[in-house]
Amino acid sequence: MPSSPITLDALQALDAIDRRGSFARAAEELGKATSALSYTVQRLEEQLGVTLFQRQGRRSVLTASGRLLLDEGRKILGATAYLTDQVRELATGWEPRLRIALEATTAHAPFFAALNTLLEEQPTLEVDLQESVLSGGWEALEMDRIDLLVGAPGPLPLQKGFRALPIPPADMLLVAAAHHPLTRLVKDPAAVAAQLAEHRRVVTHDTARHNVMRTEGLSTGKQVLYVQTMEQKLQAQLAGLGVGHLPRKLAQPHISKGKLVILNTPEETTGNQERYLAWKISNKGKALKRLAQLLAEAAW
User: Fold this and answer.
1) Do residues 291 and 98 touch, judged by C-beta distance below 8 A?
2) Fewest CB atoms less than 10 Å from the CB: which of 35, 192, 273, 277?
3) Which domains does the chain have, with CATH numbers?
4) Whether this model's pTM surpasses 0.70
5) What is the pairing mode between strands 201-204 and 148-153?
6) CA-based nearest residue to 254, from 242, 269, 237
């Protein structure tokens, strides 16, 4: 089989140029001379008989041929990175990288304290942290986009090959900005409950991409404002754009300052349901097991 002009070095060069927007910045990232990077691309263009980049102002932009090559090439780069990680993990038992999803309602302090302990023990471990909401974390775990799910809401999906440990539920409060109309009824929980559906809800998007998305907390209302993160939800509610549930530790400083007001109802459903640490039973990495142990022992 004849050798291909498309090498890993060439794909890494294309990837860096595309992300950084110029040959000079890409060369700096890769620790190479700009002339060497230019030669790599020029040589590849000559061997393939195509033009891969064109100038747009100060930026180097991929042509259609270049985009096709890079899109498919990134799959190869991802596969080689995964293979490298697997070989290293097999040799030591310690995975070089840990991908974690932190449920949006989960308290940050105990999580980062546990993570700090792990990184003190394994300083070379690479951690990739993302935020998940509702079904999104379970889906990411099932589809191998993450290794560990922290604070995942119940119910626990069955027959998915998950190992799960319960942790204390998130303490959620139904709140609104001090200047929101509902706060005038704060001393009358029945009146608050009767008026809730008439006011806009602020809801954090479920991060599921494929599975059925769901909502938690307020589920009825004529108007909804969807946000991507819990911080966005906090700011939207502080601005008076709607009502919704926030973790107590996130809301309390603003409640203490009088910027947010707790809305009590006769049968307030706070969303304080079961929460889990979860990972796949097939994942036997030492870093995952150590962090799961630290989190299970944390003072949530």
Assistant:
1) yes
2) 35
3) 8-90 (1.10.10.10), 95-169+274-296 (3.40.190.10), 172-262 (3.40.190.290)
4) no
5) unpaired
6) 237
